[in-house]
Amino acid sequence: xxxxxxxxxxxxxxxxxxxxxxxxxxxxxxxxxxxxxxxxxxxxxxxxxxxxxxxxxxxxxxxxxxxxxxxxxxxxxxxxxxxxxxxxxxxxxxxxxxxxxxxxxxxxxxxxxxxxxx
Length: 118
Known about the structure:
The protein is mostly helical. The chain has six helices and no strands.
C-alpha cells in the first residue's frame, strides 16, 4: 500500500505529520493490528509481532527476513497509467486487425498518451 501527499495538498506539512503518526505510532498500530499490511518500520513490526496471532507473527518474521535481502521497491505507477495501458492494448488490437494503419495507431498512442499522462 502506498501513501503519498499530492503536490496540490493544501497543507503538505500537516499531511506529512499525519502519515508519520499513522505509520510510526505504536498506539495507532496497536489499534490497526496489521489491518493495512505488515508495518515497514522495524521497531513497529517488532512491537506488533508480540501482539498478533501466530500466523501474522510468521508473516511479520518473513517480511523482516525478506527486507534484509530485497532491493528497493519500485516507484508507484503514475496517475493515469491504467487508462494508458488499456488504450495501448486497444490501439494495438486495432493495428493487428488492420482497422488502422501502424502510423495512425502510433499517432493515436502519442496524442492520447500525452493527454492521459500529462
